[in-house]
């Protein structure tokens, strides 16, 4: 097996990928991003080097020294300011080529993948190492959406796809057929928090997450996990609908157990699910 370089951001997904590599006896090396990756969430005793997000030259040098052939970008990374980024010369050259253009996040990530592969590395997705990370189709726990929830999910799926086509965001919140909030640069956590003040009387409310239509599934897939469930519950929403086969499902057993306990539904949907529901 080719040696994998794991560029690790925040959250638990880097740990899940690392553990999968250990089970598969796959050679790997971790580049943990300072300010994003949480030390306590990494397994003990792994080969790791801490690097700055803007230290592209050092990152490449380390990958070559470690004889890495494949690269995975995994974990949450909020968009940094230029001061936080503190780019080195390699990063500055990349920024000069692409960052001044009118691109959204997906355009920037595609340019980053192209840059990495031009330098002789192969970019792989987390689901290629650990297929079980992808959300499956249908209800994931014992709590099921009502027919009213399903109508909100259908509305949310269509709006999220339009939002993604414009390379704006991946998530929306819909209640009683009304789009309460859409995701922008602030991310899903802030979206959920913002929706608290916008909820209407009468109950309901669903968080819907989809991949962007033009998205490269090797990077930046939407993600749900225990934290998402807790935040949805605290915001007074009823459940989560995410695109099956195009959403990462962190700690699935723990997430489903928490959702069942809190009375939150989690359902994996796709275009065929939406078409079938609309035809009823």
Spell out the key features of this protein.
280 residues, alpha/beta, Rossmann fold, 2 domains, 5-stranded parallel sheet, globular, Cytidine Deaminase, domain 2, 6-stranded mixed sheet
Question: What's a concise summary of this model?
Answer:
The protein has about 280 residues and is α/β, with parallel strands linked by helices. It is built from 11 helices and 13 strands.
Strand order across the largest sheet: 6-13-11-9-7-8
* CATH arch. level architecture of the largest domain: 3-Layer(aba) Sandwich
- Number of structural units classed as domains: 2
CATH superfamily of the largest domain: LpxI C-terminal catalytic domain
- H/E element order: EHEEHEHHHEHEHEEHEEHEEHEH
**Beginning-to-end CA distance, first to last residue:** 48 Å
Task: Summarize the main sheet.
Answer: 6 strands, mixed
Strand content: 15-25%
Cα-based radius of gyration, to the nearest Å: 19 Å
Overall CATH class of the largest domain: Alpha Beta
Number of helical runs? Answer: 11
Extended strand count: 13
Q: Give the mean pLDDT.
A: 88
Shape: globular
**Percentage of residues assigned to helices:** 25-40%
**Per CATH, what is the topology of the largest domain?**
Cytidine Deaminase, domain 2
